[in-house]
Design brief:
Order of helices and strands: HHH
Shape: globular
Number of helices: 3
Oligomer: single chain
CATH topology: Non-ribosomal Peptide Synthetase Peptidyl Carrier Protein, Chain A
CATH class: Mainly Alpha
Strand content: under 5%
CATH superfamily: ACP-like
Number of domains: 1
Radius of gyration: 14 Å
Length: about 100
């Protein structure tokens, strides 16, 4: 078992931040929201007081994730929409 170096950890963290920003930017663009990705917290809820997504928005995001990351989100995967972090965790767990 190899031990991660501080450089490995830093690289992994940078990749994660980039992916979170990409997902935020894609959601904002896809839904036509008037907000800058940098002001959206990675833990901000996607529904309710967060990005205020609704069921139609959810379908658009499902298609977007499938097209961009080749990851399918089913009706049983509602936890993926908890926040940007939850969505990216879901994507990373299922990416090929």
């Amino acid at each position: 078992m190899s031990v991660a170096t501080s450089e490995d950890v830093r690289t992994q963290a940078e990749r994660r931040l980039e992916k979170n920003m990409k997902v935020k930017s894609m959601i904002i663009s896809q839904l036509g929201l008037d907000v800058e990705p940098a002001v959206v917290s990675d833990n901000q809820p996607l529904f309710g007081r967060g990005l205020e997504m609704d069921s139609l928005d959810t379908l658009e995001i499902v298609v977007m994730v499938n097209n961009e990351f080749d990851v399918l989100i089913s009706d049983d995967d509602i936890e993926a929409f908890g926040s940007i972090n939850a969505l990216v965790d879901f994507i990373e767990a299922r990416e090929v």
